[in-house]
Amino acid sequence: QLQASGGGLVQSGGSLRLSCADSGSGLTFSDYAVGWFRQAPGKDREFVAAISRAGRRRDYAESVRGRFTISRTNAKSTVYLQMNSLNAEDTAVYYCAASYTVTGALITTASRYTYWGQGTQVTVSS
Question: What are the pLDDT digits (tens) for 34-48?
Answer without folding.
Answer: 999 999 999 999 999
